[in-house]
Amino acid sequence: MLKGRLGLETSRMPHADRHGLIWFERGELCVIDGCLHFFQGKDSLTPSSVQIPHQTASMILLGPGSTVTHDALRLLARHGTLMAAVGEDGVRCYTAPPLMPDRSDIARRQAELWGSPRRRISVARHMYALRLGEVLPHRDLDTLRGIEGSRVKATYQLMAQRYGIEWKGRHYDRANPNATDIPNQAINHAATAVQAAAAIAVQAVAAIPQLGFIHEDSGQSFVLDIADLFRESVTLQIAFKVAKKAETDSQTIDRLIRREAATVFRKQGVIPAMIDSIKKVIRMEEIDASSHDRNP
């Protein structure tokens, strides 16, 4: 017997066998002759379109200047292909409509770990270990947050010295994120860009954004958890590099951050790395190992 109601999930290619993400911008996602196409230059003398192998893609990212037809949405939903509306170069994630992914193992594993207080703190300690390079002995989340906070303060100072920037401490006004000095503005904008990448990664693996292990109140708690794993290696590197560049560049700090983030994301493969981190954090290898033991 096929798993699932009437075996319907087998009508789609499993996401594990697909080819990841496809990026498009400035055109129309539409259906031509029953196939998904991205059509560009509709009003120009040389319009062009490219056919999209949507059955073999996990997610389509639509950048600025893009539109999508109702028929295209129908086709994506039918084949279980995810879609997200993102900012230029993927440094913002505006929306990613849920399209009932064909797998639930990651979400079920996440919920299983989150639902047990003992295992939840174990995952949180694992996440701190990935960031700090050591396993802390403490099992109280507030204590772990305090230790992490002091380490981050020291990191800010070291990064400022590395890039030759005057650092006056971390200041952030949620009501007005631009009401501070350039280094703090750069951190704010870089954090937003990295959170967008984390949101794409969480959506791509069908994890549950609300079930965070360190962050708790936000509807994007797990997204923030994953973004924090890349704070030192990506967020702060982008922020302080751009803060230094802003001293001699007349462009806005937001624009400089977006361009630098796009370059870093592409060169370092940040979103694929985040997807790997999600699987590592929720210990999917334990599931794979147990399945192998049951099915030699």
If you had to describe this structure to a student in words, what would you say it looks like?
α5 packs across α8. The protein is built from 10 helices and 8 strands. It has 2 domains: 91 residues, CRISPR-associated endonuclease Cas1, N-terminal domain (Ribosomal Protein L15, Chain: K, domain 2); 182 residues, Four Helix Bundle (Hemerythrin (Met), subunit A) (Up-down Bundle). The chain is flat and about 60 Å long. Helices cover 49% and strands 12% of the residues. A hairpin with a 2-residue loop joins β2 and β3. The chain has 296 residues and is an alpha/beta fold. The protein has a 4-stranded mixed beta sheet with strand order 1-5-7-8, covered by helices on one side. It has a 4-stranded mixed beta sheet with strand order 4-3-2-6.
